[in-house]
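Issue 218. Parser rejects a valid record. Input:
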Amino acid sequence: MMGTLQNLHPEYEVVDWRGRPYFVDLVWRPGQVKFAFEVKGYGPHVQNMDRTRYRQELNRETFLQIAGYRVVSIPYDDLEASPQLIISLIRTLVAPFISGNNAMEHFTRLEREMIRLAVSRDGLIRPVDVVKELGVNLRTVRNMLQALCAKGRLRPVPTNSGRRVCRYEVIHSFSDEQLW
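Output the parser choked on:
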């Protein structure tokens, strides 16, 4: 899903606020962003947990967020029973940080959010969707969508009459096709 495993680290060691090491199931660091993926089974993470362990688990996740990680909890039951659901959710989450030439840093934060929003909506986005979801002025949204078209990440989808553009479609690069 992420192309190569170059930036994916299983059982990644992190030293907590007390100086004690512990391991995150998977850490993905594709540049400046850091994701911490934790696969959580019902038994060890809920059923067999007392108040102290529960509190420690929450503090651990908070510490990871303070350390700059985006913490993603993955239910083991869903991973086993419906892996496509998990893949789809993770794809939507990481889409703004993936590009065919690993150049997402060339996109503004707003552009990355717009790409993420488009991916979460089956690859199609309308200007009014962006205005509603991100609270950005319509004129700014139209300019940003045109900029994303110029950068090769979106393509305009004309109406049936072919005169107006009301939607934009995500363009995946060749490398993205391997990811999606």
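Fixed in the parser; the record now loads. The chain is about 45% helix and 25% strand.
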